[in-house]
Design a protein that fits this description.
Layout: H1 7-20, E1 25-29, H2 36-41, E2 46-47, E3 51-55, E4 58-62, H3 65-71, E5 75-78, H4 94-103, E6 107-110, H5 121-128, H6 138-142, H7 154-162, H8 169-177, H9 182-210, E7 222-226, H10 233-246, E8 250-257, H11 266-281, E9 285-290, H12 294-304, E10 309-313, H13 319-325, H14 328-335, E11 340-344, E12 357-359, H15 365-377
Parallel strand pairs: 1-2, 1-5, 5-6, 7-8, 7-10, 8-9, 10-11
Antiparallel strand pairs: 3-4, 11-12
């Protein structure tokens, strides 16, 4: 989540383990920042002599790509993935140096902070007020075979700062009142945890696809909320968000248009726009699909993306009409298989009371209880 959590130390620890197992490991570039514990952990590992580069009258140590290629170990350690190389270097960025090592068959261990992931730069700037200049493309980051999270509670990181284990003494107060404020660290920590969790979720889906499992794997809760172009769409979104928060689940809001339906009215289009705007403001992903069979498309999308729960609004039809004509909800339930289906009450939309759920399928008593506790603790 930030400098000082122990990334380089962790990388060296893993490298020492690999070396003891007989793997040919060398250090290509190391940035210990004067930390004695980190420097001592490098003992016994062969180091490729860094290349000295003059930059604005200062001699800088940089990764020597050619020396690493000539030595050609099984594994090379290259610290500071987001580093920008001095003018005149072969590549502008260090991640490009690493890309060259990978292309010749050398494995690489490297380190990076969450704020350097390119797609998160604006989010980090909003949180910390610092617009990070050095970034790593998401595609390169995601191409890694393995990502290891090095985590530390904010209080422990601040203590390390105060003890002079992260920056020199003249920078400590500025860091503690600036980038390393507790609120910033909490937000950056959450970003790191979520980013790694998303990676794990992608791996689960890939593995599920590899074994051709027809049903979702309930390793984590994922809620798919279905909305229609009606004034109650925002209520369904709020209900889904409260449920997702209560059970710590990811939330996606979806709508499916059908060619058999008449074109959207102005009021319907406005209702969908308001619901999607609300969903995105609450941190949910939004998806718009088109299909003749709405229920089948909802279930297909849920299965393909490993959703464990589908949440829909109760249809505003009389019991007589539902008995003879059926409903979209009934069809989703029929097709859902092992995916749980929750039906949220959409009546009394102006009052917006806490949601009550009609249980379409069994097995959610514990979740509803947890949701109720969440509402009480939030003062709703």
């Amino acid at each position: 989540m930030a400098a000082g959590v122990g990334k380089t130390y962790s990388m060296l620890s893993d490298a020492q383990t690999m070396a003891r197992r007989g793997v040919d490991v060398v250090i290509g570039y190391l940035e210990p920042h004067g930390r004695v514990e980190t420097e001592s952990l490098a003992t016994g590992l062969e180091q490729v002599t860094p290349k000295m580069v003059e930059h604005r009258g200062v001699q800088l140590k940089e990764l020597d790509i050619d020396a690493c290629v000539t030595r050609h170990p099984t594994l090379v350690l290259v610290d500071e993935l987001a580093h920008t190389n001095p003018d005149g270097s072969r590549h502008t960025k260090r991640w490009q140096d690493i890309e060259e090592l990978l292309q010749v068959g050398i494995d690489v261990f490297t380190t990076v902070n969450i704020q350097h992931v390119a797609s998160l730069r604006d989010v980090v700037a909003q949180i910390t007020g610092v617009f990070v200049q050095e970034t790593v493309p998401d595609a390169f980051f995601e191409s890694a075979n393995e990502i290891e999270l090095v985590d530390l509670p904010p209080e422990e990181l601040q203590q390390r700062l105060e003890e002079g284990k992260v920056y020199q003494s003249e920078k400590i107060n500025q860091a503690l009142t600036g980038f390393f404020k507790r609120g910033n660290l909490l937000a950056l920590r959450e970003l790191s945890l979520r980013h790694v969790a998303e990676r794990v979720d992608e791996q689960i889906r890939a593995q599920r696809d590899a074994v051709r499992s027809p049903e979702p794997w309930h390793a984590s809760e994922r809620i798919l909320a279905c909305i229609a172009p009606t004034p109650t769409a925002t209520k369904v979104v709020r209900s889904a968000r409260r449920l997702a928060t209560g059970i710590h689940a990811d939330l996606t809001v979806i709508t499916v248009s059908s060619n058999r339906q008449s074109s959207l009215t102005i009021r319907g289009a406005a209702a969908l726009t308001a619901a999607f705007d609300l969903a995105e403001s609450l941190g949910a992903k939004t998806v718009t699909l088109a299909a003749d069979d709405i229920a089948a498309e909802v279930v297909r999308y849920a299965r393909a993306n490993n959703f464990t729960t589908i949440l829909v609004g109760k249809p505003p039809r009389s019991r007589f009409r539902q008995a003879f004509m059926g409903s979209l909800v009934d069809e989703i339930i029929r097709l859902s298989g092992s995916i749980d289906v929750l039906v949220v009450n959409q009546t009394d939309q102006n009052a917006e009371p806490p949601p009550t759920f009609a249980m379409a399928k069994r097995g959610y008593e514990g979740y509803i209880a947890a949701f109720g506790v969440n509402l009480v603790s939030a003062g709703i």
